[in-house]
Structures are given as structure tokens and as C-alpha cells.
Amino acid sequence: MSLRITTWNANSIRLRESSLKRIVAEIRPDVLCLQEIKVEDDKFPYDLCRELGFPHLHVHGQKAYHGVAVLSKLPLEQCHARKWCGNGDCRHAICTLPGGIELHNFYIPAGGDIPDPEANPKFRHKLDMLEELTGYFGGRKGDGARMVVLGDLNIAPLETDVWSHRQLLDVVSHTPVETEGLIRLQEAYGFVDAVRTVIPPSQKLFTWWSYRNRDWDASDRGRRLDHIWLSPALAPHLVTAEVRRAARGWENPSDHVPVTVELSVRP
DNA sequence: ATGGTGGATTTTCCA
């Protein structure tokens, strides 16, 4: 069977009803992972999600900041969250999909403006979470899990993941300490960057464009911050991957667009 | 070099 999994940073789910409907209608994900829902669990739009065909919901939200959710047409099992960096931020959800596929939905800290962990606690937090994740997944290397790791990782690792590699080397999201840290995390377990398997690194590819640019499409000063990785056991089942750039031009858009993989798996 | 916009909750913080 074909399994379509989408990740999307909604930047406030309560303001994105029309975008959510379009994603469901036009991308038709079986599983939709959200970040930055910016709402507490009891204020999440459960009924809307059920009406859109997702009876299985796992919401890990908090007031005003962060928050992740998994919407699924297929049953979800063992939904839970892990605690990272010893705080209560809702930046991660884990669910098991049919066929024993372990799904990790992440919202890694943006990291503030100053790329110096001594001067900027938010950047320190970002690097700390990366390192903790590297230790966790590194410790599981070779366990043979069928795993999807996705979300807003807030780092654009490749030169072609930003509009200007040279001009962004000192900008949080593309500094060497971050890009090298993200690659270390990826390699600690041996994750395959699914989207870059389909769209080669020779092509520029972005998933986020700042609201601050007058004409996001014409200036095209984007970054690839949203990712979908597959474990070695799952990577051979990748069929295709897609970034829905057009979503940035929808009415009242999020600043991030949906990223989707299609897998061919036996449940 | 600077500031630009948008979201949630205020009298600013975060991205």
C-alpha cells in the first residue's frame, strides 16, 4: 500500500483552517504532522480534523508557543512524548503507525538571532537539543527500526538549502555549528534525507520564506528548514517526495510549506 | 547596516 506522510509548520493552527483544508484536498496525506500549533490541547480543532478524515489524533500542545500534533487516517499506537533538555517544551511527539513504523515529529528551537551559545540561551538550547538527539538516536544505531523522523528542524544543512550560502553563514539556521550538528545527528543513526534523494542537492530547495520579504516569490530568499528522514530499514520503500511551494502563496499562509513523502509499505 | 511582517498575548516576546 501507499502511505503519504506530510510535515507542516502551521504557525498557529487556529488561523489555518483554509490551509489545512487545502493540504488535505490537494496533497491527500494519510498522516499529517504539524508543528507550532500554538494552542493548548483542549483548544485544538479536533472536530475539524475528524471532519477532514483524520479520526486518529495525537496532540501535544502548549499555550502560545511550540506544540506538535499528528493527524492520521490510520490507527496510531503508543503515542507519547519524550522530554528534551530538561524542560516542558512541547517539541516532540512519537507515534507508531501500522506496520510498526515509528514516527517522530519534531520542532527544534529556532535559536534566536545571535549565533553564540554564550551570549544567547536560545542558541545554546538549540545546540543542546541537537546533541541530546544525537546521543539518543546514536545509541539506537543498527536497531533495524522502521522509522520516520520529520519536522521543522530549523536548520538548512546544504549550501543549496538557502538562497545564499555565503550571506547566511553567520545567520542562525545555516551556521557551520548548526549544519555540522544536524549532519552529525543524521549520521548518528544513518538516516536518509528522503527529500534530497528525490530532489538532488544540485537544485536549490526551500520550505520556508520569511514574512518580512515584500515579494517572497520574486525575491525567493528561502531556506529548507523542514525535513523528512527515513531509517535505513524504511528508505528502500521511498516512492517520491515533494515540497508544495505554492502553499506559500495561499491566502493567509504559514511561512512554512508542506513537505510530503510517499512510501510503499506493507502494513 | 537596518528593518522589514506575522502570531500570541500585551504593554513585548518570539520567529
Automatic annotation (TrEMBL):
Belongs to the DNA repair enzymes AP/ExoA family. The keyword Magnesium applies. Keywords: Hydrolase, Magnesium, Metal-binding. This is Exodeoxyribonuclease III. InterPro entries: AP_endonuc_1, AP_endonuclease_F1_BS, Endo/exonu/phosph_ase_sf, Endo/exonuclease/phosphatase, ExoIII-like. One of its GO terms (molecular function) is double-stranded DNA 3'-5' DNA exonuclease activity. Residues 7-256 form the Endonuclease/exonuclease/phosphatase domain. Its cofactor is Mg(2+). It is an enzyme of class 3 (hydrolase). Its EC number is 3.1.11.2. The keyword Glycoprotein does not apply. It holds the Pfam family Exo_endo_phos.
